[in-house]
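Minimal example, chain plus cobalt (II) ion.
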Amino acid sequence: MQIVYYPHPSLRFQALEVKRIDSNLRTVVRKMFDLMYEARGIGLAATQIGLPLRLFVINLEADPAAKEDEFVFINPQINKRRGSDTDEEGCLSLPKLFADVKRPEAVVIEAFDLDGQLFEMDLEELPARVVQHELDHLDGAMFTDKVIDQHRDYVDPVLKVFEQTFRQAQASGAYPNDETLINTLREIATSGGVPDSFLTANLAPPAVEIPAGLLRPRRGRNSDG
Ligand code: CO
C-alpha cells in the first residue's frame, strides 16, 4: 500500500460505505496510520491509498507513540456545522503544496470505530478542519477545489506539475492508465470491503519534482491530511 498522488482517479472517486469490519480492514487501518506518520501528516483518507471506502484516520499529534490520539472514522457523517474560518491546509496527495481554505469553524461528526461502535465528536478549529478535509476526500473533493481566490493563481501551476508528472508516468507505462485504475476502484467500492489483493499491492506514486520557484513555504503548523 502507498499514498497516491493527484490526479490519481481514486482522489476523484465517490467512496462507498464500508460493509464489513474484518481483519483485512484492520490491517489497512494500521498501514494507513504508518503511511500517515511516515509522510508526517495528521490525517489520511482511504481514497488516498486507492481504497474507495468511506474511512479515514487522524492523529493530530502526528506522533506514532501517541496511540491515545489515534482515531478511526468509518462511514463518517457531519451532522452540524457552524461558524466560518480560513486557515492553511496541506495534503499528503499533493506534497509541499499549502494554501488557505475557508470552511465551517466547528462541526459535529459521527462515525463508527473499529469495534463497530457509533461515536460522536464535537470539534472546532484544527480538528474540525482535518475531519472536513478527510471527509471531502471520500466524496472526491480536494482542498485545492476550495482554496481562497487569492491563492488560486499560486495553486494552479503546481497542480499542473502534478498532472504532467502523472500523465507522463502513465504514457510511459510506468503507471496503470485511468481505465485500469477506475475498474479496480469500482470493484472494491461495490464489494464494501478490502480484498486480499489490495493488501499486497505496492505501486509507488510517480516522483514529483516541483520547481522551487512555484512553491511557498508553510506558514503554520503541520496540517497535512
Ligand atoms: Co488531503
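Residues 9-214 form a domain with the Peptide Deformylase fold (CATH 3.90.45.10). The beta strands are 43-45, 55-58, 71-82, 85-91, 94-103, 106-112, 118-124.
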